[in-house]
Input
Amino acid sequence: MKGHPIEVLVAYGKHEVLEGDPIEGIVIAKFPNVKAAKDWYCSEGYQSVARHRKQGAIYHGLIVEGVS
Output
């Protein structure tokens, strides 16, 4: 995450699934805009870690634009 404007709001905290399939955990990160989120996601630093992570579990990633 170094060098990217990211603020982690939630990281594997206690959770309760009300609908859908069970999950082991969730991370919610805040970026200043969609471009910053995509820049981080596409960065070599993140992708080098994600390659290993994706071999061990099923993950979902998404970008949600917030309200101002």
In short: The radius of gyration is 13 Å.
